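Internal QA ticket QA-208
Title: Verify multi-chain structure generation after dependency bump
Assignee: T.L.

Test input:
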Amino acid sequence: MKSYLPFDVLPAWKPVRALPMDEQKKRLRDPAVRRALVEAEGKMKPRDNVFQGGGAATTDPRKPDYGNLYAMKGVDWDDPTVEQLAKARGQHPVEVMIDLSLADENQIYVQPLVNETPDDVLGILKHPRTLATFSDSGAHVCQEMGSSLQTHLLSYWVRKRGAFTLEQAVKKLTHDNAVAWELEGRGLVREGYQADLVLFEENGIRPSLPTVERDLPGGARRLVQKAEGIKATLVNGAIAFEDGDATGAFAGTVLKGKLAS
Amino acid sequence: MTHDLVIRGGTVVDGSGKKRFSADIGIKDGKIAEIGRLAAGSGKRSLDADGLIVSPGFIDGHTHMDAQVAWDPLGSCSCWHGVTSVVMSNCGFALAPCKPEDRDWYARCLSAVEDIPTEAMAAGIDWTWETFPEYLATVERLPKAINYGMYIGHSALRMYVMGRRALSEAATEDDMARMAKAVQEALKAGALGFSSSRASTHVTPEDKPVASRIAEWEEIDRIIAAMAELDAGIFQVGPDIASGDHHRRFLERLRKVALDYKRPIMFGVLATKQGDDPTGWEYQTRYIDDTVAAGGRMARARRAPSTRSSR
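Actual output:
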């Protein structure tokens, strides 16, 4: 609700969504307004075979696939779809989304674009020539939080699913990627290697749920997702983060290819 | 030896995939100096890791921090998840090289494709660079809590060399020669490689294909050949997953690049049930296996070098 909903560009939705949060909530509780908003959804472009990226999905949205739209309550990939909730509550999916958003203005809805199911992801992760990477961090700042892929691998795939040992998963996040991107002297705990290290609780590391913040330059909004269970992160020997807080150490560097390093 | 810092009593998961072990880690001058049982008082400072796992910092090879690095010294949100190194400028989207008159356009393209708010870029970026080496030097000077690697991005490079022609025309012989030269200069300045995109989802603010998608494959061949000449550089490319047929044709043409020039290639294994006749992930991993068997280089896990530690 604090970020955006797929209905925001619809003429009936626009004026409501432009209101201050308190006003929006009042309107969203008004039965007449709700009827109009639900009805407007019926006029959305139907889903088609065009594969849409994150950009187009906000400016030219299709009717959501409610069977592939998850209402996030946790980070364990067991959230209900909006379709399931609509059936259980006997409500229209749009009403479900309005009610969940009213109950929690940080409610996040996730519609996977690619690699939609855990089985697909596991198959890809298990292949010896794939890399566990691609957070897309810095992009799609209002839409998704791939930034948590590392803590998710350790909490979900290692702890909850037992798909990898901790040792295997750490190798995927460190040495495998260092080799692939030819980052000499990183990705292992070895004498002579750069002291890029992370100290974490094996049974406690996990992503937190994202929240919506207006902390970009100029007050622009984005999703912010932190993690639990990380005691400290060291970069080039300096403690950059401790107990989740930045320490003010800026020891990061530019990773250069072999012709320059 | 007096270490700057000693991490005491942790359980080390060292990144090699081998079994964990208990050890202290002594750090000096930014590097791991000693692994083992270190005497009390051997460090100026110590960090208690009792009951904790100590592992290498995580590395993320696909990010778009190019704009954010200008205003966010932390590297959020990756930095909150144990990440110590990221690679940015993926899929051809970069802020360099860029002519001053095109800055607004680059920002709008980043906004259209990657949903980075233009107002944040307008308020948060002090454009002090034009060329790729100048951008790299700028990032080098910025305060950074984590490490950043970068590619020279195709859409940026094409706009820089061809101007608005980049959005509609094939490159001339002269354009291609200039692009190849700029890529070689970028590698010498420290670029990790060259990134591009053929993805149908990558469009300009006017809903037209981004510059890299206008390029003929011949242009990509020329650029990758320039990297091969220096025996350096990774080729990262966003796949065309507009349909199963598009996807498979993309992969087949990419195979030719892999086999002709032998540079390492990175692309996202993107399976989807959307779109027309989508390509499953099994097809893509089989494709990687086949290409590697034929002599191409695609990402792979490798055994870690054996330990030299004193434990």
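Spot checks passed. The two ends of chain A are 47 Å apart (CA to CA).
Status: verified.
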